[in-house]
Amino acid sequence: MAKKSEITVKDVIIKTIAVNDIDYICITDIARQKNEADPNGVIANWMRNRNTVEFLGIWETLNNPNFNPLEFEGFRKEAGLNAFTLSPSRWVAATNAIGILSQSGRYGGTYAVSDIAFEFSSWISVEFRLYLVKEFQRLKAEEQKMLGWTAKRELSKINYRIHTDAIKSHLIPEEVTREQANIIYAEEADVLNVAMFGMTAKQWREANPEQKGNIRDYATINELICLSNMENINAVLINDGMPQGERLVKLNQIAIQQMQVLEGNNDRKLLK
Fold this sequence. Notes:
Elements: E1 3-9, E2 12-19, E3 22-26, H1 27-31, H2 39-47, H3 50-63, H4 69-78, H5 88-95, E4 100-103, E5 109-113, H6 114-124, H7 126-170, H8 178-197, H9 201-207, H10 221-239, H11 244-263
Antiparallel strand pairs: 1-2, 2-3, 3-5, 4-5
Helix pairs in contact: 3-4, 6-7, 7-10, 8-11, 10-11
């Protein structure tokens, strides 16, 4: 499924999608800068240009092993002639191109990979191209930042499974009810929450009634890294039979030491 986003360039919303890990920018949105009423006509005029056809052909040759060079040569010879016309759909169908695609529906329009979209935006306006490049780079930087956060969050979830398995083996008596088991799990989760955040999940919800999710959804990447380490350590301490109160103090000390390294901050206070 295509991943969809939007960027704002000089107060204009430009749609973007990712298909098979390739990023595409909506050149229909860009074309509206030149002609709001007929963006498709703007794209058609650009594609009938000989320089455009050569650029598209070279890009496909470099990036698409299934590109049809014979059809490309036919278009290149005709490009620039008064009778020559070329639409995105005709280009894709004839040459097996991947640099341009068409979408229907709410995110409909003609899309192009960033190299081609930037070239098209230069034809529209050099100034607009510069703003487009800047905003697209900002979008990709934000996606990389979120990818790192998501990876740490998933790592924390996986380690929590290890953590709960240790609780089940060493803290839960045989034949306990599901309700009893849930109470024990909640207490152990709060051991980590108090060691890391200084409050239980319930205390956080009461202090932040307007926030959705839970306390860990609002943790920083460094806090998630630390939590991931603490969950593994707590599982080992549970296996060793250490009482919960002692584990809380131990985990808090570990949290402070690790966060000092990650954040370069020596002001966090130990639990007494």
